[in-house]
Amino acid sequence: MYKGYRITKKYSEWMYHRVQRAYRKGDFQRVAPKINMLFISTYRRVFAYFDGDEPVAWLALDRRRNWKCWCVAQVYVQPEFRGQGIATKLYKVVVNDQRIVLATGISHTEYSMGLWRNFVKNKTFNIYAVDFKNLDLVADVVVVDDMLHSTLDVYHPYTEKKDVRLIALRKENGIRRSNTRSSIAGRVRDRERSVHQHR
User: Fold this and answer.
1) What is the pTM of this model?
2) Number of domains observed in the structure of the chain
């Protein structure tokens, strides 16, 4: 069973300094109380929760060239601020307020897997499994025995043939069952471009 990987202290510290640098330069926009969106680069945004001038939690997103959706690169909450629902607040700002189509990254920590499991269980967002190598492959996601289940294998080692991610959409963006595949594919990337050009 896939148990996820651990965020190293080195990587979390590197992200902390990137966030601090952007904040001090003024490369940010206030999007909610205590939450700023920081502009790291053309294809990276970080939504950070601040305690005063200190970033204490963040949700870092990457976007592939010519894609519409953003992928989670890292979600992290400083140990002394955990258990307050801050990570969930960041996700809600991104998906609900900013109307971003959000996808899981290629790797998962045990913590992030728990977050997405709770999102499905609590119906926080509309969540689907999508194979980024074949956008016609879309499936529902449910929680059974406190585990995520889908007809697509979500937590699997990356291969050249499949790249299954979870995506989260605002619940207000209700997608008709008969049009699920085309609607979701259009939110992930432009269908005119080959799905094989992103690597």
Assistant:
1) 0.87
2) 1
